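From the thread on structure requests for the teaching lab: each student submitted one protein with a one-line request. Submission from student K.M.:

"Model Transposase from Paractinoplanes deccanensis, tokens only."
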Amino acid sequence: MPRRRGTGAGPVVHRTARIGLRPTRAQRQRCFGLLRAAGDVWACALEVNAWRWRRRDAPAASYQELCQLLAEAGPGTFSELDSTGARSVLRRYSDAWFSAAARRKAGHADVRFPRRRRALMPVRWYHGTFTLAGRSLRLPTARGCPPLLVRLDRPVPYPAETVRSVTLLFTDGRLWIDATAELPVTVHPTDQRPDPQRMAGVDLGIIHPFAVAGSDGTSVLVSGRAIRAEHRMHLADTKARRRATAARAPKRGQRGSRRWRKTRRRARLIEGRHRRRVRQALHEAAKIVVDWAIEHRVGTLTVGDPRGVLDKPAGRRHNLRLRQWQIGRTLRILRDKAVLAGIRVHLVDERGTSSTCPACRKRITKPRGRMMSCRHCQFAGHRDLAAAFTLATRTPGGAPTTCTPITEQVVTHRRAGRHLPGADPARRDPRRRPPAGGGSVGRRRPAPPPVVGSRSPTSRGEDRQRGLGPPGPRS
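Reply posted by the TA:
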């Protein structure tokens, strides 16, 4: 695709997919060499500005000035890293510097300019400098060095001609490639095109990530209990792992043993897997909402912004729940999928929506459970759906629109995170106990030999495995 789009081209969105690498030993060493060279470029930018600060000179922060300094350094300064990859690091440094300067100018005195060195820095190559064919990726290197050919563990989910850039990075104990594509906004048929006048309210939550209600009485409720269970099980595993490895942790000033480095690498892999599971579940939940909106031709989603609750201390346990909620990421995922489908997203204040009757607009005492009832108009329904219906009547300016009486609702229940352990009986997490009502408890083992002078507390004819009947033949 051309870099400069024509005037008649339609709107586009940029999507990024993270794909793992399957390099050989030599390719892995070359990839880490590129990342270390990028870290050297970052360190050079920090040192140059440190020298200028000592001499009371103006900092070198603009991208053009940094590129001039890179050209003066000459080729071959940063090993196999080519000029395109080095400039991507300088672009990242320039953006971070000007972002910090803008925030300090706005009054945030605690914001610091970039000054921390990094051993490994992501490297980005733009369209025209790399070659992507199926699962094979050719990355450019410095002049005189052979190009780097790597293999992806899965094909890029976007057409090859739409990929605008690829980024090599190391995170979660693995080498990854971030492929960013430029995709056009979906064009629907005339009779199926979303109508901007049709609005639906979206209420965000922890137990239910999305509760959507339309003005026609239809609604969808997405359950996120599998996501919450994943957070809880991961927290329990993290605590147990830290207790088990506390004795092996190096003291202050010590380097650490090879066993400790293996333990830390295993912990990083587990943390990365947990984050990928939760991220995929949030994408599934947002896709359910967007598909429902397309089916009902909803062109505008009015989303309540609950980020104001993050500034209120609510205790150790509830603060942990709020941090695990990932409100900002949930909003970004929903907005990204909605824009790609041609649906507008508006953020409004959600204060009072869970304690306001959507039928008569009178205040209701917040219930302890999920169901709420109004003693003024005898309305009864799910609390999150009632909040979503109230959000559908609000506009970004703050003034509510005309209230439409709620008729008999048609609620669609969906569940996000079916890929998580324990969400499906066929993929039950082995850490969970088997159900008490029955089910397989595994292969029966032979009874231990009796101890002389002792008596088993189990009476004759009684089985230790409850609910399984008489004991079977022993091996």
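TA comment: Helices lie at 25-54, 63-73, 83-105, 225-245, 258-295, 316-325, 327-340, 383-392. The chain has a mean pLDDT of 82.
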